[in-house]
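User: what does the whole thing look like in 3D?
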Amino acid sequence: MACNDPSPFFFENIPVGAQYELSVSGSSDAFLAEADFIAAGGAPEHWSFGEISPGPKKRPLDGQHVVHSVSIFVTIQSATEMTVTVKATIDGVGSYCGSVTGIAGTTERIKHLLRMA
Amino acid sequence: MKRTVLFLICSALVASSARAQFLCNDLDTIATCAPRLKGEILGETKAAAVKAQDDVKKKTETGLQGLTTGLASSVKDFVPLLQLTGVLGAITTNQDTGVMTVALNTPFIATNGVTRDRAFQVKALIDTKPKIFDPIHTALPAAGRDAAEKDLLAVQNRQHVTLQLSTNVTTTRLGRNFEQYRDVADAIFEGVVKTLDRLVGDEFVTDTALDRLGRDGNGAIDVLFNTTRMIDIPARADLDSVQRRARIERALYESVKAAIAVETAFTKAVKGSGLNLFGQLVNNQPQLSFAVSRVYRDPLFGPEQLTAGLVFEVGFGNNINAFMDSGGQKACEDPSTPACRTALQKFTARADTKAAIKAGSRLAFHADVISNRSYAYDLPTQNIHLSYPQSWKFTAGATFGRLVGVDDDGNASARLDGSFDGEWSSDQRLAANRVVAAITLTKKFGDLSVPLGLRYASRSEFLSDFDHGISANVGLKFNLFPGLK
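Assistant: Here's the predicted 3D structure for the full assembly of 602 residues, as structure tokens:
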């Protein structure tokens, strides 16, 4: 199955109480990943590698008529080409699958905007 | 009448002018317009950056800006000696040699418990196209040898199986698995990502503004970023549809600009911290590997064997140990501190570190022992009666390799390899004691590699009139698939 959804990626009309789930995995272990979750009106949350890989990191979503944001930062460390796969789902709303392919030094930030109904 | 015509013309011009201000196409959604805007903005930025880089090059005529991309080529052939991937590797068959392989990979014992990687491997190799033992081949009469060999090989169920156990030794200073060093790398990376907090916050402000423009007066979403086309954006109490579209596109532009700022800063922060080189440092760590194997085979293919070997390989000044020894050990006692990040930054910025990474020097020592079990083979029809007592062969040596003429993009123009081996055998009928030395310079011409080699051997491996000899060889290697380097 293709795993090339674009960034930014929009989850829309999310009902209050829905849950966002994030998982990051690699074709080898040599990569780094962290995520920042910013809730409307809330303090930013750092999600460590251990939380999101293999994951899933689960985050209930609240707030009506607001938007939340997730930034997933990936850096590849492998001397040979590898692929890091980022997957996110919100039950009943949608799912995301994106990938980062490269060798040591490749960096990419993936952004998800979560638009609450 | 004239007034009406004039009004219509003016209205058309105004509408056309407003339309000309749009950043997205009528059929775009926010989701499809965003990447195009990003491409356009980056295109402008890239053109400016290229000009700036050209200016810098003209001034300095040096720099290692391209080092990162080139590192892969310096270490591409610095492959770990044991390829440990997957818990149970797929069954593979080499079509040329006919060797079928299946491997089981598991974690193994380390100094602090169990390795995080699958450092222990059990592998079975089944030779489906085994060759007849050379002394039998030689003993067969030359006339009709091929037919006789064909008859001998036609007998079914002659086994030739090798069972191999191998492992990498994992300690704080040995081993190349990234997981061993993840704690330090993760902590530094977290620090790097935290430096982006302000920019990510600024970006969120623009995203919030964009989101609000896509909601009606009651806060409900009436512009879906994934599906609503620009031309279909509805009016809102405070804005007509054209005005609202223009505002949304402007907000999208600001959001994309803010995203680019975050992403550019992220890449810069990773490079600035030295984290882009961390994986290379891991890949150059010293590695000690052991392998033991047992060969079970029909006497037609030779004596059964037990072999054991070890390999120690190390890079110079371009690995995690060098970083730890240069102050990293102390600074990274708590890897989450800025001191650890600073130490890595300083180490990777040093000229000697950059030079060491570019050279990709490696030194490897190996020692192998092969024990042949006592052997007997009788083929009365051909009057062949072979018998050998138990014997052994010991080999030890060293190899050194490095890249030569690495440019600023990390591409090497040549590679130099040297090796020195000693071979000792308990049965001189099977193999002679000797010393072998070789040096090879592999020069690259685009996708063409030309190896130039010199080889010295004190004796031929098998008995002959040969005493000492030097041979030279020149070869050609051509990469038929340039994309697969």
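In plain terms: Chain B touches chain A through 57 residues (CB under 8 Å). Residues 4-18, 53-87, 481-485 of chain B have pLDDT under 50 and may be disordered.
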